[in-house]
UniProtKB/TrEMBL annotation:
<feature type="domain" description="Endonuclease/exonuclease/phosphatase">
    <location>
        <begin position="4"/>
        <end position="239"/>
    </location>
</feature>
<dbReference type="GO" id="GO:0003824">
    <property type="term" value="F:catalytic activity"/>
</dbReference>
<protein>
    <recommendedName>
        <fullName>Endonuclease/exonuclease/phosphatase domain-containing protein</fullName>
    </recommendedName>
</protein>
<dbReference type="InterPro" id="IPR036691">
    <property type="entry name" value="Endo/exonu/phosph_ase_sf"/>
</dbReference>
<dbReference type="Pfam" id="PF03372">
    <property type="entry name" value="Exo_endo_phos"/>
</dbReference>
<dbReference type="InterPro" id="IPR005135">
    <property type="entry name" value="Endo/exonuclease/phosphatase"/>
</dbReference>
């Protein structure tokens, strides 16, 4: 199963958006979580349905509490079958938590829970509160948690920065939410496969290059069989897509 996360950038143009989803469709994804689906609820969710057509996938959106930066999980049916939606817009989530219970045909796990998150953009306190809820997600089934975490991973090297950049991005230089997520039993796929390629910092004017966008899981580490950071969409967003591959034993 190929799973991806991508903050598509609320400022992207219509042409950039079409290019993004055309490229994503080439990746052979079974699950895709996107962040910053800015105002996609307008015009009867028309942009959502356009993306579904380009991807050949079905989308499940949840509105954001702030800024209109909605979250969406796309799945490829019938390989991925959705049992129920498990979204959460209550506190402490700054945006929301987009969740689905799924099953995969002919595979060992009866069920996997998918969650797409977009942690608070500027408040370390809110991000920590959000991260502290994730241990509750692990009680029912194996979990894949993906999204824009807006702060440093637990174990990556410190990103290079200048004094000027430190003043503007110091709130991102916080590993506490990532550490809390790890303590809850999640494996960071990129870290597990020793790929620390930054997912932000490539756009003009960026002040900090680090692995902001991540895919984490409570699945056994042996199920993690691939990972990549997509770098050929750098002109379309200030974030890069990340893709993880999971391989399961058949039942």
């Amino acid at each position: 199963m190929r799973v991806a996360s991508y903050n598509i950038d609320a400022a992207a143009t219509a042409d950039q958006r079409e290019h993004q989803f055309t490229r994503l469709a080439e990746l052979g994804l079974d699950v895709l979580g996107i962040q910053e689906a800015k105002h996609w609820d307008r015009d009867g969710w028309a942009q959502l349905h356009e993306a579904e057509i380009l991807l050949g996938m079905r989308g499940f959106p949840v509105p954001s509490n702030h800024h209109g930066c909605h979250l969406v999980l796309f799945v490829r049916e019938p390989k991925v079958r959705v049992l129920r939606e498990r979204h959460d817009r209550a506190a402490p989530y700054w945006h929301a938590l987009c969740g689905l219970e799924i099953v995969l045909d002919e595979h060992l796990f009866d069920r996997i829970d998918l969650y797409n998150t977009h942690l608070a953009p500027s408040s370390p306190t809110t991000r920590l509160a959000e991260a502290e809820t994730f241990h509750l997600l692990t009680k029912r089934a194996p979990v894949i948690l993906l999204g824009d975490f807006n702060a440093l991973p637990a174990g990556d090297p410190n990103p290079p920065r200048t004094d000027a950049s430190y003043r503007s991005v110091r709130r991102k230089l916080d590993r506490t939410p990532a550490a809390v997520i790890a303590e809850a039993g999640f494996t960071d796929v990129g870290a597990h496969l020793e790929d620390t390629t930054p997912t932000v910092g490539h756009a003009p004017g960026s002040k900090l290059a680090y692995r902001c966008d991540r895919i984490c899981t409570t699945l056994p580490p042996a199920a993690i069989t691939g990972y990549q950071v997509v770098t050929d969409l750098d002109d379309c967003s200030d974030h890069r897509p990340v893709v993880a591959e999971f391989t399961f034993a058949k039942a």
